[in-house]
């Protein structure tokens, strides 16, 4: 099935469905690239953590790990409020 159709004057043009698909894919790619660049920027601006904080910065497996992660994130939020808020807004 051809993606082109002939007009009354004999010229070939792309079908509207194909143009809509191309536009949608371009928009999707633009959103993905913009999000990736924004998240990379947040990563670059991420301040250094103390060694004691780094050991708790992982996926919690039980309630005690979750509490320790919460404490680290709370201290981090207090010290770097704008970085945290920027990351939340970008998310």
From TrEMBL:
Ranges that cross the membrane: 25-46
Keyword Transmembrane helix: yes
Keywords: Membrane, Transmembrane, Transmembrane helix
Domain of life: Eukaryota
Lineage: Eukaryota, Metazoa, Ecdysozoa, Arthropoda, Hexapoda
Name listed for the protein in its UniProt record: Uncharacterized protein
Species of origin: Lutzomyia longipalpis (Sand fly)
């Amino acid at each position: 099935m051809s993606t082109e159709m002939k007009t009354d004057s004999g010229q070939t043009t792309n079908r509207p469905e194909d143009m809509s698909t191309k536009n949608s894919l371009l928009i999707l790619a633009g959103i993905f690239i913009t999000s990736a660049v924004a998240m990379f920027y947040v990563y670059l601006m991420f301040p250094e953590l103390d060694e004691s904080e780094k050991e708790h910065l992982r996926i919690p497996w039980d309630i005690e790990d979750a509490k320790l992660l919460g404490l680290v994130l709370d201290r981090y939020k207090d010290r770097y409020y704008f970085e945290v808020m920027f990351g939340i807004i970008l998310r």
